[in-house]
Design brief:
Elements lengths: L3 E2 L30 H29 L8 H6 L8 H30 L24 E5 L4 H8 L6 E5 L6 H10 L5 H10 L4 H8 L14 H12 L4 H11 L5 E4 L6 E6 L4 E3 L11 E7 L7 H8 L3 E4 L4 H9 L2 H9 L3 E5 L14 H12 L6 E5 L29 E5 L2 E2 L2 E5 L1 H17 L2 H4 L10
Parallel strand pairs: 1-11, 2-3, 2-8, 3-4, 8-9, 9-10, 10-11
Antiparallel strand pairs: 5-6, 5-7, 12-13
Length: 468
């Protein structure tokens, strides 16, 4: 496959539940001022017209064919010909009124319950293309991952677009997140905290507060990050709703974008090693003494979070990674709804390969080994491009005691169905991490080259320096 060389070089505002369409006698799901009512009335008139057409056809059918009871008793009874006119029509009309009333009442109760839960109301995920889009002042980017790599992507894109969605793994069971998950039965908050901080537009002191971790002299609080505890407290304030807690924390931190779980299921990550050993728990996976053969979740097929699925289907650019291959990237793709949405999305889909190996997970891995592991777990069609670091100069600063090596791609190497894209994306001061600004510029340029076709410049997708 050809290789491309690059240079080195939603906006859905979050609202409080009280502001999210709760006014009006009908529960706020016909909000005024948005131009919805005329189109709804037109749609209802169209349905009524179809009903009239059906009634006219049935009337002619009834007049033309009168079925006797003998010989066709079932058809005779199903067409209600044993009931005299006009009681036959009145009975059918009464049934229609009853079904309409029951359906309307049930729908109204469901909408009110959803509104009270704090969830934003919208069409199902499968109808994501029909959702009302905000004004386009940047491409719609979805980052799928977790750990320390995902915030790098979010920080890089934040200056270029407001339409950023982070789809976060919920398999974390170590450290502060693991303790809170086991003790309180909530989703692990650590990765959500990191993504919220990365997308926030708050004073540095507040960001430092959310990332503050209690020390050894803090008693039972030792090891906990303040932001994790804040999310737990907000979950209690919102009635035990972790999703609402994320939204409210986003408002407090002035987050530019959305942070969503890949699933709400209480999943556990397992790893089968090359020696047949099974390790359970994301935090224990790097402790294995053999290479990872495969990872899997229990329950095996958790349902994807609908808003995450909708964001993926509506994306312009989907970014997988960077981050721990087996504990941050692949777990999201083991959620069937998520991987199906990624595969079905028309977006430009890029896997960002790590710049260095990770002890216990990807020892001795090159770029091809990372790609092969992803392909073995989720199959083809999930990503079209692999972004590979082309700047190996910082790798000279890797110390032997770190037990890591730079991840490299030999020249003139190809892989079926994948195009490798080289760019200088490593952090010059940290050979183990990507640089946010370099990474975002490379991804924006890739999008411009592969999908934009000049439209990006017209819509402000890329800043001027990215096009030089």
């Amino acid at each position: 496959m050809p290789q491309t060389a690059l240079g080195a070089s939603n906006d859905q505002k979050l609202q409080r539940p009280s502001e999210r369409g709760t006014r009006g006698g009908n529960g706020g799901w016909w909000p005024a001022g948005l131009g919805l009512r005329p189109w709804a009335a037109l749609m209802i008139a169209g349905l009524a017209t179809l009903g009239m057409a059906g009634a006219m056809w049935l009337t002619n059918l009834y007049r033309a064919f009168v079925l006797p009871q003998t010989g066709t008793p079932l058809v005779h009874d199903l067409t209600l010909q044993f009931i005299a006119h006009p009681w036959r029509e009145l009975g059918v009309a009464g049934l229609g009124v009853a079904l309409t009333g029951i359906g309307y009442g049930g729908l109204a109760r469901a909408v009110r319950a959803a509104s009270h839960s704090g969830r934003p109301l919208g069409p199902p995920a499968v109808l994501a293309p029909l959702r009302l889009r905000p004004p386009r002042d940047g491409i719609r980017v979805v980052s799928v991952g977790g750990g320390t790599g995902q915030p790098t992507v979010l920080r890089g894109f934040k200056p270029h677009t407001d339409h950023i969605t982070a789809v976060v793994t919920v398999a974390d069971d170590g450290g502060s997140s693991g303790r809170l998950r086991r003790d309180l039965g909530i989703l692990p908050p650590g990765d959500f905290r990191n993504c919220l901080v990365a997308l926030s537009d708050v004073e540095p002191l507040l960001e430092e507060l959310f990332q503050y971790r209690f020390g050894a002299d803090s008693g039972d609080l030792q090891g906990h990050a303040f932001g994790n505890l804040f999310l737990v407290a907000m979950t209690g304030v919102t009635g035990g709703n972790f999703e609402a807690a994320i939204r409210e924390c986003s408002r407090v931190l002035a987050v530019r974008g959305d942070v969503l779980p890949s699933t709400l299921a209480d999943v556990t990550l397992h790893a089968e090693l090359s020696d047949g050993t099974i390790i359970s728990g994301e935090s224990d996976l790097p402790k294995g003494k053999a290479a990872v053969r495969r990872v899997f979740l229990t329950p095996e097929q958790p349902h994807g979070y609908p808003d995450a699925v909708a964001a993926i289907l509506d994306a312009d650019l989907i970014v997988l990674g960077p981050g721990s291959l087996y504990t941050s990237v692949i777990p999201n793709l083991l959620v069937p709804d998520i991987v199906r949405a990624v595969r079905s999305s028309p977006a430009v889909k890029v896997y960002i390969c790590n710049v260095a190996t990770q002890p216990g997970e990807t020892d001795q891995f090159g770029v091809l080994e990372h790609v092969q592991a992803l392909r073995e777990h989720v199959g083809p069609g999930v990503f079209d491009y692999v972004l590979v670091n082309a700047d190996l100069a910082p790798a000279a600063n890797i110390r032997p005691e770190w037990q890591v090596q730079p991840v490299v791609l030999p020249p003139d190497v190809s892989y079926p169905g994948v195009e490798f894209v080289r760019a200088a994306v490593v952090n010059p001061d940290n050979p183990l991490r990507h640089d946010p600004a370099r990474l975002a510029m490379a991804l924006l340029q890739l999008y411009e080259d592969k999908r934009g076709r000049g439209a990006g410049r017209a819509n402000g997708y890329l800043p001027q320096e990215a096009r030089q």
